[in-house]
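Bug #77: duplicate submission created two jobs. Keeping one. Sequence:
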Amino acid sequence: MKRDASRSEEQQIPVNDPVPEAPAIMPAPGKSLLRAFTSLRHRNFRLYWFGQMVSLTGTYMQIIGQSWLVLQLTHSGWQLGLVGALQFLPVLLFSVLGGVFADRWPKRLVALFTQVAAMIQAFVLWALIATSTVQLWHIYVLSILLGFTYCLDRPVRRAFVVEMVGREDLPNAVALNSSLTTLTRIVGPSLGGIIIAASGISMLFLLNALSFPAVIVALALIRTSELHNQPQKQPDSGERQSTWQSLHEGVSYVLKTRAVLLIILVVGLVLLFGANFSVLLPLFATQVLQVGATGFGFLSAAIGFGALLAALWLAWSNRQPTIHAILIAALIFGLLEVAFAVSHIYLLSLALIAITAFIETTFAEQSIILIQTVTPDRLQGRVMSVVILFFDGSIPPGYLLTGWLANLFGPSIALLIGAGLTMTVAAVGWLYRKPAISN
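Kept job's structure:
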């Protein structure tokens, strides 16, 4: 009976109330803007966050540089897509296995390994460009290798956050990481464009390679004695689990914990059908709103601005999310896409796309916070690898689906179809929320 009761407490998530076993949030004094940075009071997370600020800026600089390099070598849009697919393919196929190793090994050491591997890849690519020996197949191979690095890196970094800040500041830390990613996604490409124009593409790749020591040093300085992780639990037989047994344990937890499964399926499908509006922005700018390249630039900036505001708001509020709030936000997300699809007024569309990005970031980050809050420490890496598989894995097929629909029916109809499917998924999720929670 005691074992069954423990299982029930671990898997139940209320509709409207925060998870009961999560510790109470310790708010910062008052409601000042500094409350948004609560989790930075943890020395380990502070080191990691500022190290990531430098490293991610370099990463997004390289992304624009790599695209520019491929275009110079091939003058082919298809090759641009192929390089991106090769880099993402290992993540799609093997990220779940990465979660197994994330739970088996110390996460700080694994993160150090992945960052050093990525730095070596960046230096190799820079050396090839600097010596004018780079060829397309070099980029293929390095992209695949970097993809394998990400298989291990992404679930480790997601799971490591809860170890650095504990569960009480987890919502704030996840939101701060999201805001950092969004900010560097805006700043990195902008700096990259300036560097390419001023110094050439070689300098951009060198600067990216030199950005990695910031996060590597930060990880090296982290005090393991201050981490919030729990000792790893061994199987009852006293024998070490095999890789497949460990993988089965993580996947079984997701399948048996219906509330977690509901969140992963609903949010994953919503991202598949609805989170592809950025692909259609050039078509909306030229065919629907008729505002040209400048208008397209402002629409793209509005997406980044809305996502950044959402991340900062989540960090400031530092609240435990609920299934209720996530499903409502997903439904609102679909309604906003419908409004954007039928709008022919540029200023209105600008506001709508910013709000849409705000809502998307809100429910996506809240779902990650909720899943990490209820997942046992020993399963964090494996569960987050499943989340990455469904959330990040929805991006390539979603882009293909949206592009295909746009070719058949035009951008407005394509977005309306995606929005309709999004709202359908959210509605089905709402119907199944009570059976999932009562499991």
